[in-house]
């Protein structure tokens, strides 16, 4: 059996494909409208009545076939390896479904139809189902260009056949037979074109072709679900027509529906593309989430462009498009446009369940909505305004519920609905004030449509290096910079050596200047003015504010392929994915906003929660942190990539004296716990001969010196300042014991470096250090227990043989930490997040 890789796998939704299908749908609608006007002129009144009734029945049959077969074919072709058998099974199903549809259509007009007309209706019903199957074959095999040609080609063939039939004197029966001729011709063409495409090999390609019973069950479920999706936005006019018994007052309402449903044409095209993409990838996959987010962005952009134009259409233009509609009825366009937007949103949302399931809960929801709609619309049918607003409220509530189910199913929220809807409201207000000035209204409408097309244009792949915009927060040159900046620089400089163009944007600090360091371009943001520049906390807040406001400008200047957001104090994340269309990867080395919230009595943790939920791809620097991220945001794709080590740290240093206790890192108390170490050492100082060497700088350096003096250990503590490069490893190698008193860590770079130099570590028993500081290489005591820490200090300082034994096991436990491997894996992740299709393991 021959297999070819599914072309949908690893690809993002194609805006060009959706644009093609949308244009084809609009062209088909316009051609149908023109053909109807032509038939009115060509046929006698009695013949036209028969033709109009039959065409209405066939429209219902075509809607049912189009709602059932293409989604079913797309699912089956993506999930089955034996596509030939699948197509044949679906064709048999289409033929069997077409027979009762043909019988029902013939029975509906048997009282006045001629045998020729009945035969034409039956033939058209059968060929429409086969034509829908052919369209499904093209859609399931990603032949969107041929599919876009199929719809207008069918109308064109029908027009030619209608002219020939009328000229031949066959009347309404001949015009109806044109449906069968056109549908049959395009069905054969579609099936032949689809057969030329290689067999798809999607997410479930190892599964055999479905058995008949299972196919029928899925087909019935898909057909009923899609029929309800099509019916719900039009149920208002169906119920009103039945209640009012064809009252002529409904005519303006019916005519305005033609204009108000324009967003649904676009949504149907987007849903066709989205269904093919989702069906080709596993549920909950990164690629599926990317496809859905991209499609939802296109949907909201289309809504922002089309809905204001439809809702504010000037009466002078409306009289041209829909002649005979009274001017007062134009006020119905606003609620009817809301119905159209809600119906379009419903169409896109339902696609997720068509591709991935389960469909039954959604089917129950739509049945309940339809059941509620019937009495509601019947009660308001006498007042068209009340009917329109009732339809708007019910359809919007149903669409909102479906979106909530989508978010619960795959974790994708409105995907950027806020900004487009705000722009739509603004455009509506502007255009509404210009309704009486048609030329100016047309000019503004053209600007709105042009902006929407520009926004949704596909980004062409440009030549040149792969570009990364890294919102790095901390400059490694900044005093007090911690292990996070070390990781950022070590990875970025290796990416730069591989030809990647990396721009790192950092928070302002005293003496900060733009620079290129090891191939990485560092761009510090502007400093705070005056005395505020010396306040570290305000500089941090200024960084996040500048990122939030200035990210579009940074993106335009650097033109990145991916944006990397480092989580940093005090907010962790400011929801960068909601600020740009560029793919974003979250690099999590800090996740402790709640501690900062308690320290400053500000709701930083609320911002952190919102920012974290905006991300779909997260990199954690330890398995413990990755587990916490998965707990907080289970729908995101979280990958653990630990820090690496400089090979110089692992170099053997025989005979190095080991006399002192060493603390190396940022001089900070909130997370690094330097105050806990000083209190513990004060308890142990009289019992040991080892001095305490403290290396580093940071925001609490002055407080630490004052605390040491207050505790009476100032003469036993030596402050070394910042230690970099090889001197860092030499210092660790001369220590008897390295103290890591952190209250919170995301990885523990100092602990890893100490173990590499064969020095044991004393730490608190916190999650992210348990994997590094095992019982074979160090000692852990209960978190925050100063007394236990002091006792362990005394025991280890007085037992150098035990320290040597623990230290000897250290290098083997961290030898796998390699910066080159981390950089390679992180680059693969960047490319995968940008739709490259390549992937990396879920954990290191």
UniProtKB/TrEMBL annotation:
GO terms, molecular function: glycosyltransferase activity
Matching InterPro entries: Glyco_trans_1, Glyco_trans_4-like_N
Glycosyl transferase family domain sequence ranges: 660-809
Keyword Membrane: yes
Keyword tags: Glycosyltransferase, Membrane, Transferase, Transmembrane, Transmembrane helix
Transmembrane spans: 48-69, 90-113, 119-138, 150-170, 176-194, 215-243, 255-279, 300-321, 333-355, 362-380, 413-434, 440-457
Residue ranges occupied by any Glycosyltransferase subfamily 4-like N-terminal domain in the UniProt entry: 482-648
Name recorded for this polypeptide: D-inositol 3-phosphate glycosyltransferase
Source organism of this protein record: Streptomyces flavidovirens
């Amino acid at each position: 059996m021959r297999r070819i890789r599914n072309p949908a796998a690893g690809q993002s939704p194609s805006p060009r494909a959706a644009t093609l299908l949308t244009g084809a749908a609009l062209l088909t609608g316009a051609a149908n409208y023109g053909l109807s006007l032509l038939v009115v002129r060509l046929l006698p009144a009695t013949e036209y009545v028969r033709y109009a009734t039959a065409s209405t029945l066939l429209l219902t049959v075509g809607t049912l076939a189009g709602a059932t077969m293409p989604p079913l074919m797309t699912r089956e072709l993506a999930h089955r390896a034996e596509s030939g058998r699948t197509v044949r099974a679906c064709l048999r199903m289409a033929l069997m479904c077409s027979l009762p549809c043909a019988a029902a259509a013939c029975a509906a007009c048997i009282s006045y139809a001629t045998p020729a007309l009945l035969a034409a209706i039956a033939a058209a019903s059968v060929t429409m189902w086969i034509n829908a199957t052919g369209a499904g074959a093209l859609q399931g095999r990603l032949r969107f260009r041929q599919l876009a040609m199929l719809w207008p080609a069918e109308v064109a063939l029908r027009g030619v056949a209608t002219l020939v039939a009328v000229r031949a004197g066959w009347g309404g029966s001949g015009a109806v037979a044109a449906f069968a001729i056109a549908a049959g011709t395009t069905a054969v063409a579609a099936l032949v074109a689809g057969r030329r495409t290689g067999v798809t090999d999607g997410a479930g390609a190892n599964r055999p072709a479905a058995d008949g019973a299972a196919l029928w069950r899925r087909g019935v479920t898909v057909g009923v679900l899609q029929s309800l999706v099509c019916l719900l936005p039009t149920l208002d006019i169906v119920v009103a027509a039945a209640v009012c018994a064809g009252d002529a007052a409904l005519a303006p309402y019916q005519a305005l529906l033609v204009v108000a449903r324009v967003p649904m044409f676009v949504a149907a095209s987007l849903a066709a593309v989205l269904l093919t993409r989702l069906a080709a990838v596993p549920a909950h996959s990164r690629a599926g989430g990317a496809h859905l987010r991209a499609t939802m962005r296109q949907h909201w952009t289309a809504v922002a462009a089309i809905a204001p134009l439809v809702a504010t259409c000037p009466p002078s233009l409306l009289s041209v498009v829909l002649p005979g509609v009274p001017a007062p009825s134009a006020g119905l366009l606003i609620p009817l446009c809301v119905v159209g937007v809600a119906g379009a949103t419903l169409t896109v949302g339902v696609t997720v369940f068509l591709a991935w399931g389960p469909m039954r809960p959604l089917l129950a929801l739509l049945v309940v909505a339809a059941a509620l709609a019937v009495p509601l619309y019947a009660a308001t049918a006498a007042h068209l305004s009340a009917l329109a607003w009732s339809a708007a409220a019910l359809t919007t509530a149903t669409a909102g519920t479906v979106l909530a189910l989508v978010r619960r199913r795959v974790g994708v929220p409105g995907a950027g609905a806020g900004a487009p809807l705000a722009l739509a409201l603004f455009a509506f207000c502007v255009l509404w004030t210009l309704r009486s000035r048609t030329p100016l209204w047309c000019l503004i409408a053209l600007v709105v449509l042009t902006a929407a097309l520009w926004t949704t244009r596909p980004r062409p792949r440009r030549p040149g290096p792969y570009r990364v915009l890294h919102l790095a927060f901390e400059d490694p040159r900044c005093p007090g910079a911690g292990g996070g900046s070390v990781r950022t620089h070590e990875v970025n400089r290796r990416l730069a050596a591989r030809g990647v163009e990396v721009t790192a944007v950092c928070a302002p600090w005293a003496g900060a200047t733009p620079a290129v360091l090891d191939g990485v371009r560092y761009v510090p943001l502007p400093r705070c003015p005056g005395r505020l520049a010396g306040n570290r906390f305000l500089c941090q807040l200024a960084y996040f504010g500048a990122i939030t406001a200035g990210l579009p400008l940074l993106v335009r200047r650097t033109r990145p392929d991916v944006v990397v957001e480092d989580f940093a104090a005090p907010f962790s994340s400011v929801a960068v994915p909601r600020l740009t269309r560029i793919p974003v990867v979250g690099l999590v080395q800090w996740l402790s906003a709640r501690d900062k919230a308690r320290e400053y009595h500000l709701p930083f943790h609320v911002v952190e929660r919102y920012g974290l939920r905006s991300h779909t791809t997260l990199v954690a620097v330890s398995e413990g942190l990755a587990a916490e991220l998965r707990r907080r945001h289970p729908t995101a794709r979280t990958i653990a990539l630990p820090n690496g080590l400089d090979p110089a740290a692992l170099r053997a240093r025989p005979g190095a004296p080991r006399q002192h206790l060493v603390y190396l890192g940022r001089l900070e108390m909130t997370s690094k716990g330097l105050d806990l170490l000083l209190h513990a050492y004060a308890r142990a100082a009289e019992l040991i001969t080892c001095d305490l060497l403290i290396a580093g700088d940071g925001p609490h350096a002055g407080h630490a010196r004052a605390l040491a003096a207050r505790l009476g250990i100032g003469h036993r503590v030596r402050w070394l300042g910042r230690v970099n490069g090889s001197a860092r490893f030499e210092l660790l190698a001369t220590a008897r014991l390295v103290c890591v008193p952190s209250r919170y860590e995301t990885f523990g770079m100092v602990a890893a470096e100490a173990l590499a130099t064969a020095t044991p570590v004393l730490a608190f028993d916190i999650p992210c250090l348990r994997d590094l500081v095992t019982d074979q290489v160090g000692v852990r005591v209960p978190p925050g227990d100063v007394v236990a820490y002091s006792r362990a200090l005394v025991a280890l300082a007085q037992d150098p043989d035990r320290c040597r034994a623990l230290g000897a096991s250290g290098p083997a436990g961290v030898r796998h930490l390699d910066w080159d491997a981390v950089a390679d894996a992180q680059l693969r992740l960047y490319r995968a997040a940008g739709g490259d299709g390549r992937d990396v393991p879920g954990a290191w």
